[in-house]
Amino acid sequence: MLNRIDLRGSTTDPRGLLPRAQLDVSVAVDKIRPVVEAVREHGAAAVREATERFDGVTLGALRVPAEAIAASVEALDADVRAALTEAIARTRKVHSDQRRADVTTQVVPGGTVTERWVPVARVGLYVPGGLAMYPSTVVMNVVPAQVAGVESLVVSSPPQVDNGGLPDARVLAACALLGVDEVYAVGGAQAIAMLAYGVDECAPVDMITGPGNIWVTAAKRLLRGVVGIDAEAGPTEIAILADDTADPVHVAADLISQAEHDPLAASVLVTPSEALVEAVERELTRQVAATKHTARITEALTGPQSGAVLVDDLAAGLRVVDAYAAEHLEIQTENAREWALRVRNAGAIFVGAYSPVSLGDYCAGSNHVLPTGGCARHSSGLSVQSFLRGIHIVDYDEAALRDVAGHVVTLANVEDLPAHGEAVSVRFK
Ligand SMILES: NC(=O)c1ccc[n+]([C@@H]2O[C@H](COP(=O)([O-])OP(=O)(O)OC[C@H]3O[C@@H](n4cnc5c(N)ncnc54)[C@H](O)[C@@H]3O)[C@@H](O)[C@H]2O)c1
Ligand SMILES: N[C@H](CO)Cc1c[nH]c[nH+]1
Ligand SMILES: [Zn+2]
After folding, report:
1. Whose CB has fewer CB within 10 Å in the chain, the N or C terminal residue?
2. Where, by residue number, does substrate bind (predicted)?
3. What pLDDT does 16 receive?
């Protein structure tokens, strides 16, 4: 089922040899550009037109009425409510510990620099809702934003035909449990454009976070700069670094679990063990046939973005997973914790037999909005820090400025910017 890539004996950089999707974000950007431009020019009318085209829904008001949000939480099953409440509590516990303190450095007597962490004022949180519904993603977006102290939070999520053109009822209920009351029934690239530019019915935001499919991710890439954007969190990826000690039943189940998100999802096994690959293949055939979303899982597992990569040993496997920079990396090896600590590039790492990605998707306390497409080489998953800006406050008194004035003037002259130097020396004439 999985494509085989045999890197045994290879000494070249593995980056170009690894499985990757054919439809990449840069191609999708060209396709959604007209949608984004139409929203910028025509506002809510263009949002409605795109929603009709891509979601098959004729929208009335873009904003979800408060009564609909309240009714969704009333109608929530008790077990779903309990699970969401637990997920919120664990996520809040972990994220509360991430809040950075302001730091003041006494550079010289009379001269300080303070780094003050200030939350972004208004944030748009995207919650996907195409092939699957994501109340858990409400939790993963909203909790860190709240812990950071963001004052104005907006959720946007695709309208659902079977919920009368509103977002999924469990998504609305999660918003209610977290006290979010500004929710829009808009998905896809048009939602990202609406949040970035603002339309009559929705004021623009300063920053957009949250995962989505390739169209959502492309719109985020296009609008970066118009608005702040977290990492690109597109179609899901799992890589598993495993050796002979891994249980093929677990490995197959975990590869399938993330393939379930999207036909473009990527599942990659990296191992020195040919026997493990064979055993995992047998398990994939058995488990895929028995699960619910067989068609899209099969498409994801057999696509060019998925595969089994054979390596000489775990050290070579480590180089491969670092080059791949997966959104999720599981380590199912002997001494898994030690290998995990040697990884440089991954959105999140799941250690050993009892930390599957599904735990992190819902209830580990960690965040599940994570960088994809190799962005884990330079970006982190969503956290409290994502919503904060460190502003430097420079506070020198007269003596401290006088003391360093000569150096400032020298550097200003070196850069042929004498007016910079004047702005200091004028104070001491
Ligand atoms: N990386 C992460 O942190 C993370 C977390 C959760 C989910 N995900 C990913 O989020 C994605 C969710 O995807 P989804 O489809 O279920 O929901 P989605 O909300 O991301 O996408 C649905 C929207 O796509 C738009 N759309 C559909 N077809 C289109 C087309 N041909 N052209 C332009 N726009 C189109 C529609 O307007 C629709 O509202 C999956 O890929 C999943 O793997 C990633
Ligand atoms: N695995 C997804 C991140 O790529 C998150 C998620 C939400 N629900 C289930 N899974
Ligand atoms: Zn998942």
Report:
1. C
2. 236, 258, 261, 328, 361, 415, 420
3. 86
Q: Does the interface predicted TM-score (ipTM) exceed 0.90?
A: yes
Q: Is residue 257 classed as helix, strand or coil in its secondary structure?
A: helix
CATH code, 26-230: 3.40.50.1980
Q: Please give the positions annotated as active site.
A: 327-328
Give me the CATH code for the 235-377 domain, please.
Answer: 3.40.50.1980
3-state percent breakdown (helix, strand, coil) of the chain, nearest 5: 50, 20, 35
- 385 in a labelled binding site: no
Collapsing DSSP states into helix, strand and coil, what is residue 119? strand
DSSP annotation of 176:
H
CA nearest ligand 1 atom 36, residue: 188
Percentage of residues in the chain with pLDDT exceeding 90? 97
Nearest to 196 by CA among 166, 222, 171: 222
What does the alpha-carbon distance between residue 322 and residue 316 come to, in Å, rounded to a whole number? 10
Residues, CB-to-ion distance under 5 Å, ligand 3: 361
Q: Is 420 annotated as ligand-binding?
A: yes
Task: Count the Cβ atoms, other than its own, within 10 Å of residue 78.
Answer: 7
How many angstroms does the Cα of residue 234 sit away from the middle of ligand 1? 8
The pLDDT score that the predictor gives to residue 409 is: 98
CB 412: neighbour CB atoms within 10 A?
A: 18
Give percent above pLDDT 70 in the chain. 100
Q: How far apart are CA 181 and CA 153, in angstroms?
A: 8
Q: Is the CB of 134 under 6 A from ligand 2?
A: yes
Residues 6+ apart with CB under 8 A from 378: none
Instruction: Please tell me the total number of residues recorded for the chain in this structure.
Output: 429
Q: Is 243 in the pocket of ligand 2 (CB under 6 A)?
A: no
Q: Which amino acid is at 230?
A: D
Report residue 106's pLDDT band, with 50, 70 and 90 as the boundaries. very high
**Where in 44-137 does DSSP place strands (E)?**
103-108, 111-119, 122-126
Give dist(CA 125, CA 142) in Å, integer.
7
Examine the pLDDT at 93 and tell me if it is beyond 90.
yes
Every domain range in the chain assigned CATH 3.40.50.1980: 26-230, 235-377
Specify whether the CB–CB gap between 357 and 267 falls below 8 A: no
- Measured in Å, residue 261 CA sits from the centre of ligand 1 at 9
CB of 252 closer than 6 angstroms to any ligand 1 atom: no
Residue nearest to atom 41 of ligand 1 (CA): 235
